Amino acid sequence: MSSVSPEDRENTVWTVDEHLEDILAAVHPLDPIELQLPDAQGCVLVEDVTVPVALPPFDNSSMDGYAVRVADVAGASQEFPAVLTVIGDVAAGSDGLPEVGPGQAARIMTGAPLPPGAEAVVPVEWTDGGTGGGAATAMLPAGAAPEGAGGEVRVHRPAEARAHVRARGSDVPAGALALAAGTVLGPPQIGLLAAIGRGTVKVRPRPRVVVLSTGSELVQPGAELGPGQIYDSNSFALAAAARDAGAIAYRVGAVTDDADTLRATIEDQLVRADLLVTTGGVSVGAYDVVKEALSGASDADQPGGGVEFRRLAMQPGKPQGFGSVGPEHIPLLALPGNPVSSYVSFELFVRPAIRALMGLPDLHRPRARAALSADAPLSSPAGKRQFLRGTYDAQAGTVTPVGGAGSHLVAALARADALIVVPEDTTRVEPGDALEVVLIG
User: Three-state DSSP class for 203?
Assistant: First the structure.
């Protein structure tokens, strides 16, 4: 937390950067654990992984065809094919490989080891497939060959040495670096680990993020709306945003405006949370339940033991809360309840916290400079950093506002792929002016 004295905190207006700095100072990467490969997807590798054996571990064929000696097919053509004796089959996983001698060939399948004596592979399309006819398009089934093929194959084209042969170690040699620490393990990385024989890997686990919305007016989608009620969209949006950031997200149905109920719900969720995110109830209203339930408590062993509520010099998202709860001091970020305020706050504060828990060095969304594309100037409140929604055109280098500045405009947010940042000292932006944009699409 900041060094500002407690008596000054209530009246302090914090900058976006100060609030984020306090959050990141209190959030630390999760401890590494050893996981089976299927469970490691999306996690961050904490150690360099080297290749114990070459990949591929032996010379093998990249085609279905015939393993041959180069001299035996030199000068082969459609009119004067090279006629070779087929001495056997080499399938993937074969053992006891036949040795290819002068005037001989071995049928070979993709991925099968190159037999001794062979120097190249001719694709089946360059042969008659052992049928005695013209160019083949496929091989006879294994049960029908080589006896059914007459024991001979006609090759219609020459092959250079090592043609269609994948060399041992051509993908990655033994002892080389396969994956560096800090790599996020996606499907290709999981596949590589399996290919080099790793069954487990040491990673930082995906953070478990519990998202909880508050408000007696909230109804779950699919239910009937009563007077004065609205559907709970925040918990769905923020849970999806947490998953998009790399977390495992747990969404809790809306909690009514009762401080005791909220405290009990938070306490129940601590067992499965590395980070808690609440939305709503952080302003100055009489029913702002999050602020009522979590501020002012001094016992760190109880939910609410260390949560501080602040006013930030930003729009939208002025009211914010941050601290830790429970005996394990689980970080908690309390976001405002208006949908746009909530989502913008997530992008600025929660997403970096999630990525910090993952141990990633790059915590933030990519940013760019873009010229404002608008029919009229935009205004912005003095002393506040404004985040407008927009669509970014990378090719043109422009950004176009979507919707207005209202913090309830969910439809406009759904069409946006960028946040347009208007600095605190700027109150008017003209069309064509260059602004920073946060790319959220």
Answer: strand
Phi/psi region, residue 260 (left: phi>0; alpha: psi -120 to 50; beta: rest), is alpha
pLDDT per 10-residue tile (average), the chain, 441 residues: 54 93 96 97 96 92 96 94 93 88 95 96 92 75 57 94 95 93 96 95 97 90 91 94 97 89 93 95 69 64 69 95 93 94 96 97 95 95 95 97 69 92 96 97 83
CA atoms of 282 and 332, how far apart (whole Å): 13
Name the amino acid, one letter, at 362. D
On the 0-12 / 13-18 / 19+ scale of CB atoms within 10 A, 96 is exposed
- Which pair of structure tokens corresponds to residue 374? 């608008």
> Which amino acid is located at 214 in the chain?
T
DSSP summary character for residue 161: T
Written as one letter, the residue type at 379 is S
End-to-end Cα spacing for the chain:
31
Does residue 141 contact residue 124 with C-beta atoms inside 8 Å?
no
Q: Quick check: helix, strand or coil at residue 371?
A: strand
Asked if 301 and 332 count as a contact pair (C-beta separation under 8 A), the reply is no
Chain length of the chain: 441
Consecutive H or E run containing 88: strand 82-90
For residue 56, whether the previous peptide bond is cis, meaning omega lies within 30 degrees of 0, is yes
Q: How many CB atoms lie within 10 A of CB 430?
A: 10
Alpha helices in 270-400 (DSSP H): 289-294, 339-345, 351-357
